[in-house]
Design goal:
Blueprint (H helix, E strand, L loop, with lengths): L4 H5 L4 H17 L15 H8 L4 H4 L14 H5 L9 E6 L5 E4 H7 L3 E8 L4 E11 H5 L10 E6 L7 H4 L1 H4 L7 E5 H5 L4 E6 L2 E2 L9 E3 L12 E7 L6 H6 L22 E4 L8 E4 L7 H4 L13
Parallel strand pairs: 1-10, 4-11
Antiparallel strand pairs: 1-2, 3-4, 4-7, 5-6, 5-10, 7-8, 7-9, 11-12
Bound molecules: ligand MTE.
The site of ligand MTE has 16 residues, from loops.
Length: 310
């Protein structure tokens, strides 16, 4: 199992987690290692392990992005996303709940138990990073409503504001996608303690290009599930569509669990290009089942044909 470090962080307060993160960095500095490293068993060869354990440098994670609302090139979001207004910001929890609610971002930030966790982010395009997120478990936010037993899935929606998101206004910039960007999870996936709503990374608030002020992080699924700048969370009875299913359902399924044995029709998912900070932490590494979180999440898929439900 890879990335054990999140376990240290579960259910701790912000201060404890920040201290832990700092302490880990201090120890590593003493050892002459500048990037943060977790404790891992021997699943990969030493070089692959080193790569996957390295924290991706902040300037890479904030300038190499996918956020099509701001353009299709990886460098577009960091150049264009400053136009997104993240205050005031409200999030609605709607659908199959006893009472729909609207929450203000600042209330959410005040009330949610904020933690820090490093997770690997594996994009369907076969590159990956390791990012220290700040945020809270989605299940803690969903506790604010009473979910009806009819709810089986959760749908997420990004803000729709063509005047703030140039790609929503101009299809040549935004890639002819039907906006707003939408995503979905099964209810048990949404309630899994690994599923985070990120409000920050690298010990700071999220930058717009990374999905400020709130974005989903589901570390065992391909990165496109991690929808950015969320304004609505809707409990639904039936499996919702996602933007990528709408675009190309034969290539991007609802589940999108990282799986080195199920390849994209146009490229292999067996390996990934890890974006690290040094010469030694760049290059190809083996992709792990459920992105290394198999121990924590595989029980949710017992008996399921992961080729069919890709
Ligand atoms: N959310 C929205 N609203 N729009 C997007 O284009 N891209 C997704 C996901 N969330 C995307 C999105 C994809 S494909 C990936 S890989 C991740 O965000 C990238 O997150 P990062 O830029 O913070 O690394």
């Amino acid at each position: 199992m890879l990335i054990k470090n999140y376990k240290f962080d579960v259910d701790k307060t912000k201060t404890t987690d920040e201290n832990l993160y700092k302490k880990r960095r201090e120890i590593l500095k003493l050892m002459g290692i500048t990037s943060s490293i977790a404790i891992f068993p021997n699943m990969l060869n030493a070089n692959d392990k080193y790569k996957l354990e390295t924290i991706t440098p902040e300037n890479k994670a904030t300038t190499y992005n996918n956020f099509y609302e701001f353009g299709l090139d990886k460098s577009d979001p960091s150049r264009n996303a400053h136009t997104l207004k993240t205050r005031p910001w409200q999030v609605k929890i709607t659908g199959e709940v006893d009472k729909e609610i609207t929450l203000d971002i600042d209330t959410i930030l005040k009330e949610m138990p904020i933690i820090e966790r490093a997770y690997r982010l594996r994009c369907v395009e076969a590159w990956s990073m390791n990012i220290p997120w700040r945020g809270f478990e989605l299940n803690k936010l969903l506790n604010k409503v009473k979910i009806k037993s009819s709810a089986k899935f959760v749908q997420f929606k990004t803000k729709y504001a063509p005047n703030e998101m140039i790609g929503q206004k101009n299809p040549y910039i935004g890639g002819f996608i039907k906006y707003p960007y939408i995503e979905g999870l099964r209810l048990d996936e949404a309630l899994n303690p690994l599923t985070l709503i990120a409000t920050g990374m690298y010990g700071k608030d999220l930058q717009n290009q990374n999905g400020a002020p709130l974005r989903l992080v589901v570390p065992w699924k391909y990165g496109f599930k991690s929808i950015k700048s969320i304004v609505e969370i809707k409990l639904v009875e039936k499996m919702p569509e996602s933007t990528w299913m709408q675009l190309q359902g034969d290539e991007y399924g609802f589940y999108a669990n990282v799986n080195p044995n199920v390849h994209h029709p146009r490229w292999s998912q067996g390996e990934e290009r890890f974006i690290g900070g040094s010469f030694f932490s760049f290059g190809k590494v083996k992709t792990l089942m459920f992105n290394g979180y198999e121990e924590e999440v595989s029980n949710m898929y017992n008996g399921m044909d992961l080729v069919k439900f890709f």
